[in-house]
Design brief:
- Among the domains are: 20-195, Leucine-rich repeat, LRR (right-handed beta-alpha superhelix), CATH 3.80.10; 218-334, Leucine-rich repeat, LRR (right-handed beta-alpha superhelix) (Alpha-Beta Horseshoe).
- The protein is 9% helix and 17% strand.
- It contains 7 helices and 47 strands.
- The strands form 12 sheets. It has a 14-stranded mixed sheet with strand order 1-2-3-5-7-9-11-13-15-16-18-20-21-23, with no helix packed on it. It has a 13-stranded mixed sheet with strand order 25-26-27-29-31-32-33-35-37-38-40-42-44, with no helix packed on it.
- α2 links the parallel β15 and β16 (221-223).
- It starts with a helix and ends with a strand.
- Residues 323-365, 696-733 are annotated as: Disordered.
């Protein structure tokens, strides 16, 4: 046999050598083929079948067609860098079930289709660095269950939708650096249980994406450097396993004392090269061992002493040096004595340098008195200066202007002259009651506008005149009783509208007439009792609708008609007691995430979820009072199911639910409320089902043939009497 195998091997080797394509070099001993920097326009069809490593760098393929590698099923490594590729056909890599490494860097790929990477079940490393990817279709990575490293650096990603990385159960490192990300879906990183490192540096994030990051329970390292983040808010980061956080080279001016309270494992915090004059004691960060503050304009006065004392008490090592007062300039923090950190020193000025004290290289470096302007980041800030009039005179190339926490009261016409390049404007917590017509005139590049926590109750029709590119409008925590419909008419580019925690009572027809491109509408925490049938009709591109915490008593089924792209619907904390038949039918073809928790829900009709099925990725039903669960066996795509705090009655009528939960292989949190002997037990662990007809099929691995046979007849009778649509009983009845 050994001789025969040797002869077969030699024969195959000769055949393989004979089939080596002319422009390529074949190393049959190692099963490597190199076709480098040639003029190939198609994948050679005569590559030896037994090839394991194929290097095609520097060719001109443009498109990888379906089944391009079917003749080389033994490939483990494939390099397609710099091949001028623009498109991966769906099924392009089908047949490469042994491939573990795929490099597609430095091409011109703009879109990843749902099946572009189909067939790569063993792939461990996927390199897509340096392409032009603007969009990733949901499901694009659904077949890559073995992938451990995904490299998407240096692409053109602007936002990440929810569940975009679904299927990557083994992923450990996700690299998203050097994109243009400024919006992350709240569930963008859901279903990444093995992720340990996330790289989001060199993007356009203006705030810490805390809600999205909270999904990453196991991540230990987070890179957020080189983003224009100005402030880390209270309890902003809740990552249970995070140990190393990098926020270097951002635009930080302040960090809340309890920003990291919910990240108890944090060990190192890198805040190099920001605009921090100091830090408060970082309460709750009990495990912190090192804080790096080098390159910040630290003001080593008495104002810094609480932080200094906390460093000593918590035994935290700090790296950084004083920028002021002059007597302490250049002194390392760890060399200071508390007695040197004084206030009232004649050479000490706690205020930032005035324009007269700053070096000027021309008019572009001007800055209003009392404010700070960063030429490197094109940022201006007068945050928390108790200003009553909006200052003018910022550099013409300012792109982010932070005016939060002042006392302006009103925003007059032409309030921001000469700021044609301004992209982001922060006016949170300024006591603003009136936004005059023409206030934003001239802000032709403005994309982000933040008016959170003011006193606005109405907007004039011309309030947003002069800002045609405005895409993200945040009006949370104001005093609106109706949507500012007329003002929205001037915002053709509006994508995201935040009106949470206002006093809106209803959505009327015409409220969204000017928001035809709207994708995300956030209306939680209002007093909405009614949504007119045609109120949402103009927003045909709507993807997210958040209505939690309102006064709705029924699902607004009629108003949902025509929303063919809606993927996320939140109805949590509304007093909806009953879900009728087909209430989600208008959005059944697109809905992926449904929130129905904390409603006091008492009854779900057997056909309430009709039309929903494999597309549903997450379903939240916790903290309700329903007495039955409809049959959801066709919800085959579920990745999150929450059934906590539902009083299930664990008797034989609940056995179908028990079977379904077992098949899901998800942590659903379902517990028994009764009978008494099962109260508090997980449904999966309750022994009350063991006397039920058909129990042997649930535990088929341990059932004897006799028991299975004996149980089969009664269970068949029960199924013949009970329609599947009646679902899974959970009550005592």
């Amino acid at each position: 046999w050994g001789l025969l195998l040797l002869m077969v091997g030699l024969t195959l080797g000769k055949v393989a050598a004979a089939r080596c394509p002319a422009p390529c070099i074949c190393d049959n001993l190692r099963a490597h083929v190199l076709c480098l920097n040639g003029n190939l326009t198609a994948i050679p069809s005569t590559i030896p079948q037994l090839t394991k490593k194929l290097d095609l760098r520097g060719n001109s393929f443009t498109v990888i067609p379906v089944g391009a590698f079917l003749t080389t099923p033994y490939l483990t490594h494939l390099d397609l860098r710099r091949c001028q590729m623009k498109k991966l056909e769906e099924g392009a890599f089908r047949g490469l079930g042994r491939l573990v490494y795929l490099n597609l860097a430095s091409n011109s790929i703009a879109l990843l289709y749902q099946e572009s990477l189909d067939g790569l079940s063993s792939l461990q490393q996927l390199i897509l660095e340096g392409n032009r990817i603007e969009e990733i279709q949901p499901g694009a990575f659904g077949h890559l269950g073995s992938l451990t490293v995904l490299d998407l650096r240096a692409n053109a990603l602007v936002y990440l939708p929810d569940m975009v990385f679904q299927g990557l159960q083994a992923l450990r490192w996700l690299r998203l650096s050097h994109n243009a990300l400024h919006v992350l879906g709240s569930e963008a990183f859901t279903a990444l249980p093995a992720l340990r490192r996330l790289s989001l540096d060199h993007n356009e994030l203006q705030a810490l994406p805390g809600e999205a990051l909270a999904r990453l329970d196991g991540a230990t390292r987070l890179d957020l450097g080189h983003n224009p983040i100005t402030y880390v808010a209270e309890e902003a980061l809740a990552m249970a396993s995070l140990q190393h956080l990098f926020l270097d080279h951002a635009a930080l001016q302040d960090v809340a004392s309890d920003a990291f309270t919910h990240s108890p494992q944090l060990r190192t915090l890198d805040l190099r090269e920001n605009q921090l004059q100091g830090l408060p004691p970082l309460a709750g960060a009990g495990g912190l061992a090192r804080v790096t503050l080098a390159g910040n304009p630290l003001l080593c006065s008495c104002l810094l002493r609480p932080f200094y004392d906390w460093l000593a008490k918590a035994r935290v090592q700090a790296e950084g040096s004083c920028a002021a007062p002059p007597a302490l300039r250049g002194r390392p923090l760890d060399s200071l004595r508390p007695s040197e950190m004084r206030c009232g020193h004649p050479q000490l000025s706690p205020s930032p340098p005035t324009p007269s004290e700053q070096p000027k290289s021309g008019s572009s470096r001007q800055c209003p008195r009392g404010c700070t302007c960063s030429p490197d980041f094109h940022h201006g800030s007068c945050e928390n200066r108790d200003l009553q009039v909006i200052p003018q005179g910022f550099p013409g190339d300012t792109r982010l202007l932070d005016l939060r926490r002042n006392a302006f009261g009103t925003v007059p016409p032409d309030a921001f002259p000469g700021l044609k390049e301004l992209v982001s404007l922060h006016l949170q917590s300024c006591g603003i009651r009136v936004l005059h017509p023409g206030a934003l005139r001239g802000l032709e590049s403005l994309v982000y506008l933040y008016f959170t926590n003011n006193r606005l109750s109405t907007l004039a029709a011309a309030a947003f005149e002069g800002a045609p590119q405005l895409a993200y409008l945040d009006l949370d925590r104001n005093a609106f009783t109706h949507l500012p419909a007329s003002a929205l008419q001037l915002l053709p580019s509006l994508i995201s509208l935040h009106l949470r925690h206002n006093a809106i009572g209803e959505l009327a027809e015409g409220d969204l007439a000017g928001a035809r491109g709207l994708r995300w509408l956030y209306l939680s925490g209002n007093a909405i009792e009614r949504i007119a049938p045609a109120a949402l009709a103009p927003a045909k591109m709507l993807e997210k609708l958040h209505l939690e915490g309102n006064h709705l008593t029924e699902v607004p089924t009629v108003a949902l008609r025509g929303l063919l792209t809606l993927s996320e619907l939140k109805l949590s904390r509304n007093p909806i007691k009953h879900l009728g038949d087909g209430v989600f039918l208008p959005v059944a073809s697109s809905l992926q995430h449904l929130y129905l928790d904390n409603m006091g829900l008492e009854r779900i009709s057997p056909s309430a979820f009709v039309g929903l099925g494999p597309k549903i990725r997450s379903l939240y039903l916790e903290s309700n009072k329903m007495s039955n669960i409809p049959n959801m066996s066709n919800f085959t795509g579920l990745e999150i199911l929450n059934l906590r705090d539902v009083p299930f009655h664990c008797d034989c009528q609940l056995l179908p639910l028990r079977r379904w939960i077992d098949k899901l292989n998800l942590h659903v949190g379902a517990t028994c409320g009764s009978p008494a002997e099962a109260r508090g037990l997980k449904v999966k662990l309750s022994t009350t089902f063991q006397t039920c007809p058909g129990w042997g099929r649930v535990k088929a691995g341990g059932a004897t043939p006799e028991k299975t046979k004996a149980a089969s007849k009664p269970s068949k009778k029960k199924r013949s009497r009970k329609s599947p649509a009646r679902g899974f009983k959970s009550s005592r009845a």
